[in-house]
Amino acid sequence: MATTSAGILLYRLGGTGEVSVLVAHMGGPFWAAKDEGAWSIPKGEYGEDESALDAARREFREELGVDAPDVAYAELGTFAYSSGKRVTVFVADGAAFTETEFVYGEFEMEWPPRSGQTQSFPEVDRIEWMPVGRARARLVKGQRPALDRLEELLAAAR
């Protein structure tokens, strides 16, 4: 069965109407020197015992160390990666999200490879508000369609 994940994509509109989104650079040694394709919507896996939105809010907290904003969320869609993994993305206006103190969650892995040593690394090493065009090139490929859908919904609302 395919892995299922859920995440939150916050957006805000600039004074010129430019749309920015909050995305996270993935942590750990594999992603450290990468930029293009090395960013992600804060998200994570969940099972049948949890709703996708509850999982998205939990993962936001686990990855960034702060609660997701207490605002209305809409399901943007479920997007499939080439690997078969599926991610359900929830979107919300994050204009009022002003948090600056993040405490990134950590994961452990063997590092250096085949060394037998385990090290801890942050799941995320930085977050950034960036224009959708810049975010598109930086996000992992499987999440890029979420940006297209966001732009479609915002255009339809104008």
TrEMBL record:
Gene3D superfamilies: Nucleoside Triphosphate Pyrophosphohydrolase
Keywords: Hydrolase
A molecular function (GO) term: bis(5'-nucleosyl)-tetraphosphatase (asymmetrical) activity
Name of this protein: NUDIX domain-containing protein
GO term, biological process aspect, one: ATP biosynthetic process
Residues forming coiled coils: none
UniProt cross-references to Pfam families, sorted A to Z: NUDIX
Domain Nudix hydrolase: 1-152
InterPro entries on file: NUDIX_hydrolase-like_dom_sf, NUDIX_hydrolase_CS, NUDIX_hydrolase_dom, Nudix_hydrolase_domain
